[in-house]
Amino acid sequence: MAFQPIYVMRHGETVWNAEARFQGALNSPLTKTGRAQAQQLADILAGHDLSGFDVRVSPQGRAFETAAIALARQVLELHTDARLREIGVGLWSGKLRSEVAPVGAAQDDTPDGPLALYEHAPEGEGFAALRARCQDFLGSLTAPTLCVTHGITSRMVRAVALGQPSANLGDLPGGQGMVYVVEDGVHRRL
Fold this sequence. Notes:
GO molecular function: phosphatase activity
Organism: Tateyamaria omphalii
Number of strands: 6
Protein name: Phosphoglycerate mutase
Mean pLDDT: 91
Pfam family, one: His_Phos_1
Active site: 11, 86
């Protein structure tokens, strides 16, 4: 990749995250914990000079609100980029995970639930389309970049940046209130 580093952050906890609901293209507000996680991101980034960084944010409300809190001290403008929106979950949007999980399916493969569910959501986007969107995003970068996105999209951006297959998404850590950096083929958490 020509421009590095890439800082990747996920939005703070939302009401629907707390309820274990699929959000996809839908939105729910940040919880008190989610706003605290956004502030935690601001504290992490306080020790890092972001001048010269292109800041890109998913246009979905939860990501934009997180970015506004986390970056207020350092960034004058937030630029939205639809390629950073969360993976579409089609007919599962707004449903509880327990309503869609196959009988006997593990619910704890990752903090976000089984990643395989995102691949098989009826009328959902699927990993191939998400990967193409993330490749397009990364290919458009012209400067070091900080992006605020979502759980599955965050993993896919990092997988693509690291040259890893989509099958490795579950190997990449997730979570809210953390900043991940991809630089020179190395993945680390700030």
